[in-house]
Amino acid sequence: MAARPLAAPVMRNLLTLLMLLVIGLPFIWMILSSFQPTSVLINPRELFRPDAFTLENYARLPSEANFLLILRNSLVVALASTAIAIPLALLAAYSVYRTRYRGRQTVYLLLLVVYVFPGILLLAPLFKLFSMSGVLNTWLSLIIMNVTFSAPFSVWLMRGFFTSIPHGIEEAAAIDGATDMQILRRIIVPLTAPGIVVTGTYTFVYSWTEFLFASVFLIDDSLKTLPIGLEGLVTQYSIDWGLLSAAAVMTALPVVALFAFAGRYFVEGVTAGASK
Amino acid sequence: MSTTGSSAQAANAETDAAGPKGSAVVPVRARLGRLFAAPIMIWLALTIALPLGYCIWISLTNANTMGGTPRFVGLANYVTVLTDGTVGGPFLRSLAWAIGGAIIQTLLAAGAALLLNRRFAGQHIARTWIMASWVVPTIVTAFLWRWMLNADFGVVNHVLQSLGLIGRPIDFLGDPDFAFITVTLVNAWRWFPFMTLLILAALTRVAPEYYEAARVEGATSWQVFTRVTLPFIQPVLYVVGLLGTLWSINVFDIIWLTTKGGPLDMTETMPVAIYERAFQQFRLGEASAMSVSLALFLLVFAYCFIRFVPRGATEQEVI
């Protein structure tokens, strides 16, 4: 057991490194592949040829995958969903964490149920309801469902920010003569700014990723979002792996960039959320 | 000012209000609270409760995707889906998928969380880094693994072959013997980082004094783990297990995008079967009957789980 004090930390560092590689290597491989011509990619004897480096796959994206259009569609849907989810979740979080009233527990429980609600269950009825109300085949149908499934979880993500504000801060402000709206605007909203970042990140990522509803609700090619556009490339008879790698990199890039910026708040928000 | 007039007693009571259930609630800004809860409740009523009710109605009719006036058929759809022998397979696969997935993900997540809970250079970067597989769109994950696991020119087969571990390439996603476990692992790769975050949240709550006290008493690392760490994270492990199981059962996209439920239906779980019945066979009534049955099952499962788990554990973690 003499070696233990030294060996254990080394072991742990190696395991940590292994874990980071398991997550990271597939992405690195995808990025490397996107700079190779398809002819090299589908050659069983060649894995990678540094001298065959090319930007051709990226250059082909706008013309062959109509990439700019579906990129724009995804942006519009994700931004609109985020814009609606933030105020909804913010208000609900205030209600659940900073006030007390009969029925509050029920509100919280209903929000919890939505986290684990099977989206597939709603697919058929929503298809019918949306088609009757003319919402089918519009971005609105996606935006509505993105908010439904991301706002309740965002409420939970913001728990840490809301519960970390000392109790009684509203009372103190009220004694100084501030109205409810002033309290919210001047005290709570600035204090929960990181919570807004967390909600925004979560909703944006959720919307950017959403596949199930987008695959059924959008019919026109001109409306389709990135996951659906990419699936169109995947299911073609012969797959153009080079083009697809480039499309996948470009699809992942915006959320990865967003997360690189906001991820720290996100991770700290959730982990701090648990500590009282 | 009626909402803010409740003063300091109410503020003190606030900390207690979450505790004993059923006791009278001391209102704190009650009017504001109700007002602020209203938008999301109305939103969810329209987008979840309403379609849910409609789903139950559709399940009692012969509705299809094409249109036409649906006719009430009673429980005929339930009888059809439960007796025509097409649901047993997907149901069992969903069970295996969810339980297997929950075990793999909880173990991976617990290990990862323990590793990330230490202080080391770059711990913030590491914590954000591991979220990558969760952040990236499922379509990208699906493509990535289809590409790397490809039988003809995938890097995984290439490496395994050059190491001499396998003689000929394995079609991980196309071979009925491998497809199910492969998709389970791909899904675990996608989801375990998020579970890690939830467990990490519980670990950060363990006060350092407990560890110090254990060290002073001369406890080994294993003893510290079983006597200090584990009791602290046990409640959140239950929650992660429950959430992981329920989330897994609902997973559709990663399966659809990697295997479309194949080969030979080996990866056709309940959501895939429902999707196919609704949007490939256009039998909405039957698909809805399957959905409602699945939802009832989930409800019973969640209820049993919460009853089985030590009282208070789930509430403490989630609420």
Automatic annotation (TrEMBL), chain B:
InterPro entries: MetI-like, MetI-like_sf. Keywords: Cell membrane, Membrane, Sugar transport, Transmembrane, Transmembrane helix, Transport. Residues 91-307 form the ABC transmembrane type-1 domain. It is found in: Cell membrane. Residues 1-21 are annotated as: Disordered. One of its GO terms (cellular component) is plasma membrane. PROSITE patterns: ABC_TM1 (PS50928). It holds the Pfam family BPD_transp_1. It is a multi-pass membrane protein. The chain crosses the membrane at residues 35-60, 95-116, 128-148, 178-203, 236-257, 287-306. Residues 1-12 have a biased composition (Polar residues). One of its GO terms (biological process) is transmembrane transport. Belongs to the binding-protein-dependent transport system permease family. This is ABC transporter membrane-spanning permease-sugar transport. It comes from Oceanicola granulosus (strain ATCC BAA-861 / DSM 15982 / KCTC 12143 / HTCC2516).
